[in-house]
Amino acid sequence: MSVDLTTDVEQAKKSSSRHDAHFGFRFVTPLALGSTLNPINSTMISTALVAIARDYHASVAQAGWLIAGLYLTSAIAQPTMGRLADLFGPRRVYVFSLCVVALTGIAGAIAPSLGMLIGVRVLLGIGTSGAYPSAMRIFRTQADRIGVDPPRVAMGFMSFAGIATTAIGPVLGGVLTGCFGWHSIFTVNLPVSLLTILLVLLWVPKDEQPAGSLVLLMEELDLIGIALFAAFLLTLMLFLMNLAHPTWLVLPVSITSLPAPFRTAIAIASL
């Protein structure tokens, strides 16, 4: 009986050491950093809307598209980028997403108009939406590689990082806007994403499977469904954000595209 107990303790220690070796600080930190980019960018912008509207001579309602643009893009891009991580390798998609975020850090600082800045936010939504699903896929791949379940502590740390940054986003945005101007809300993404890329290249194992092909991408992704889903969300938001002077012509487009979200949701659930 004592021999069995000793054996169980030794096995538990070995399992714990394997978790520590493969899911330690070096592995978790770059994944947690990237996972915070979407929630923190979703909330930081709220404190800068008035300043941005003033500089571009626009209304606060028009500046509100900076928030809506990222949320709409995230709703479409997150499941799509997750599928791309499966096809092309999560580490590749993760690094690509971080490069897109770094690019928006530069573009946001020099955008000449509100329309261009909204485009930057859409691009930021694509980049940040690729980080979280890719990070979770990297976790799963690492666990499969060593034959264990992902440790709850490491997974909990990643979840906590996302929740915590959502809470501090408005505070951080207010501090950056007050001290350095609203442009800093965009430029702060440049050093954070570059640091995360460096840590990923140093500490995260390379993808084992080869990258997928363009042909496979076209076969796997329902591009028509994604386009209709985007049209549904965009036209609905166009109508809802201008209720004082509603644009009734967008409603037929929204209604026509209505079945697309259900088809897309079923397709994503079946993956």
Task: Give keywords.
271 residues; mainly alpha; 15 helices
**Helix-strand pattern, N to C?**
HHHHHHHHHHHHHHH
Largest sheet: none
* CA-based gyration radius: 21 Å
Mean pLDDT, nearest integer?
82
pLDDT under 50 segments (min length 5)? 5-14
Alpha-beta content class: mainly alpha
The helix content is over 70%
Q: Roughly how many Å apart are the termini?
A: 46 Å
Shape, per Cα inertia axes: globular
Supply the number of helical segments.
15
Give the DSSP E fraction (strand runs of 2 or more residues): under 5%
Number of E-type strands: 0
Explain what this protein looks like in three dimensions:
The chain contains 15 helices and no strands. It is globular and about 60 Å long. The longest helix has 33 residues. With 271 residues, it is mainly alpha-helical.
Helices and strands in order, then pairings?
Layout (H helix, E strand, L loop, with lengths): L1 H21 L2 H11 L1 H8 L4 H7 L4 H4 L1 H24 L1 H21 L3 H33 L5 H29 L3 H4 L1 H15 L10 H7 L2 H18 L9 H7 L2 H11 L2
Helix pairs in contact: 2-8, 2-9, 2-11, 3-9, 6-7, 6-8, 6-13, 7-8, 7-11, 13-14, 13-15
